[in-house]
Predict the 3D structure of the following.
Amino acid sequence: MTKEEFLFHLNGASFVALKFAENYVKDKLTTDFKYNIIFTPPNVIGNMDQFDIYPEDEGIIRLNLTDKEVVELLYRKNKIPVWIDINVLKSSRKSTTFNLLCAGRYTDNKEEYYYNDNGSGPFGVKGPTFPIGYKEGKKFRLK
């Protein structure tokens, strides 16, 4: 995947995550996007020769990034994380912020991307975090 394709998938997943979140939240979600990246452990099990791993990233969180900064940070040696879970975190008058929870394994093989079958490459759209006591069908405010 090229950097341009990765950016295309990030932007597409962002719009899908925004539309999905609108089903649950009262907040007005804008299309000026910001991102938080959360790096997870690589979960090294079995033969990992086909993946690049970066153990030094584990536990690091990067906040308030633009889409281009996300691409620059996650696109490494023509490889990207095998999965990236995206969900709306918060909204302000100016922007909507997403969390990107990223796998610690990087690949250039699209067959390794967890969500490739649905056309979103490595991106898995998740819902916003529901508040304690959430009742089905009732919208809530993001914190």
Notes: The radius of gyration is 15 Å. The first strand starts at residue 33 and ends at 39.
